[in-house]
Amino acid sequence: MDKLDSMAAVCDFDPIAGSVPATKVEITVSLVVLYTQGVETKQWREFGRTEVIDNTLNPDFVRKYILDYFFEEKQNLRFDVYDIDSKSPDLAKHDFLGQVFCTLGEIVGSPASRLEKPLGFYLCFSLSLSLSCSGIPGKKCGTIILSVEELGNCREVATMQFCAHKLDRKDFFGKSDPFLVFYRSNEDGTFTICHKTEVVKNTLNPVWQAIAIPVRALCNGDFDRTIKAEVYDWDRDGSHDFIGEFTTSYRDLSRGQSQFNVYEVIQQAAVSTQALNSEPCILTHLGCSPGNPSQSTSLHYMNPYQMNAYAMALKAVGEIIQDYDSDKMFPALGFGAKLPPDGHVSHEFPLNGNIENPYCNGMEGILEAYHQSLKTVQLYGPTNFSPVVNHVAKYAAVVQDGSQYFVLLIITDGVISDMAQTKEAIVNAAKIPMSIIIVGVGHAEFDAMVELDGDDIRISSRGKLAERDIVQFVPFRDYMDRTGNHVLSMARLAKDVLAEIPEQLILYMKNRGIKPCPLPPPNEEPGPEDQDHTHPYLSPTPTPI
């Protein structure tokens, strides 16, 4: 057997300077240039480039992008792919192969933070999410793989050196030109490249130069996490010959030069890990304040040139939170209106008019259903919140294993006719996987909404305190930009209204002792139970309205 050992593995540790202002995530991509977009200016700014890999249609880049991730913000990303023809840094002098647009939230929100998507066939990527992508017209698509992982706080740097003995001879007229490639295991059982050594020419007993690599790049602070090393014989045309591989862990490597750090380089190895996932289920409810939507005095006024406050708030919040829902299908209900044909008052009617299936396709689908409903219903009081809160709570109570978390978005003029019943409904909902976002529109006083928020005084009902704070309220008027810059003001609105959701979700999981659920190994065919996409609303006996 070929053997490879580490010499003085991890003989030195150095702290990495700097602080972490937000959650840092690492994006692995198989492309060349990453651009980020400013919230206010909408201008694309180059963030970084990968290294260039010669003579391959399937590159696996070592260089990663480290970004600050904010759950409550929409962080637009663009990836441009080039075929590099020279050493010139001017991208205009190279062949453009295609580009991908996505948001960082889409990446994080994908199952196991990893997703494969078709693109231009020249390259393969690594990242994660539901993304929009485009290639060169008329060309076949290859595969894009996008993955992201939250970085740990480990700041140590490991210094290691490796050598090998009696590797396989791969060159017909010589020996081998070996180099090492290191990978860390991901939560879904796949591997991400994290380091590549230099090539040592014409030898079967190479001694590679010492390397210094951040520990979080090797294992993200998990000392027992599997690390895989592959040994290749370098070829000029890029078709490097595989010699063998071995697996280890940072804990083993940290023992330094010893019998524990001698590895057999074998042709095949199998390592598997498990991934975790918890998917939010987003639900939307629009409160219907009295007034004629065709008149400009109504908060629901359908201006042909500008969205009303309800639509703007829905779009601002929905465009961010929808990234964390896999199928982008959302139930949208209204409350406070007379319904045709008999004019009965309802406090939980489907905006799309379909009682058995109130789901709308994405935010655009919800907005379309909202506008259509304004043409068919008559806005009417009183305004009761408790029916919609209890409606959602009924479905959230069925799924308390951590696999789903329900977010209820309520957009209202602030009038509430059933305060006591709503407080009781919220106290009960605090025990289940559910959060409530309330956006108040109009110029009314929102004292009742502030009380429901419970930031200053925890909400209670019948002498019982809510187990946790699950309500976040913001008044829409506080975010109206006098200069007319609605894009920036709506970004601020979404940031503030979504700020408490991650903490609320984590607190629920901790209170229930729920650990992340394992995902099936990569490429495993889903079972019949995994193929059942029936939503809880689509039960044989739909909720009466």
Indicate the topology.
Layout: E1 2-7, E2 23-28, E3 33-37, E4 44-49, E5 65-69, E6 76-83, E7 95-103, H1 104-109, E8 114-120, E9 132-135, E10 141-150, E11 157-165, E12 178-185, E13 191-196, E14 211-214, H2 215-219, E15 226-233, E16 241-249, H3 250-253, E17 262-265, E18 279-287, H4 309-321, E19 329-335, E20 337-339, E21 344-346, E22 349-350, E23 359-361, H5 362-374, E24 378-379, H6 386-396, E25 404-412, H7 419-429, E26 434-440, H8 447-453, E27 460-461, E28 464-465, E29 471-475, H9 486-497, H10 501-512
Parallel strand pairs: 18-19, 18-25, 25-26, 26-29
Antiparallel strand pairs: 1-11, 1-17, 2-5, 2-10, 3-4, 3-6, 6-7, 7-9, 8-10, 11-14, 12-13, 12-15, 15-16, 19-22, 19-23, 20-21, 20-24, 27-28
Helix pairs in contact: 4-5, 4-9, 6-7
How would you portray this structure in words?
Helix content is 17%, strand content 31%. It is an alpha+beta fold. The chain is elongated and about 90 Å long. Helix 4 packs antiparallel against helix 5 (362-374), helix 4 packs across helix 9 and helix 6 packs parallel to helix 7 (419-429). Strands 18, 19, 22, 23, 25, 26 and 29 form a 7-stranded mixed β-sheet that branches. A 5-stranded antiparallel β-sheet has the order 4-3-6-7-9. GO terms for molecular function: calcium-dependent phospholipid binding; metal ion binding.
In a few lines, what is going on in this structure?
With 545 residues, the chain is of the alpha+beta class. It has helices at 104-109, 215-219, 250-253, 309-321, 362-374, 386-396, 419-429, 447-453, 486-497, 501-512; strands spanning 2-7, 23-28, 33-37, 44-49, 65-69, 76-83, 95-103, 114-120, 132-135, 141-150, 157-165, 178-185, 191-196, 211-214, 226-233, 241-249, 262-265, 279-287, 329-335, 337-339, 344-346, 349-350, 359-361, 378-379, 404-412, 434-440, 460-461, 464-465, 471-475.
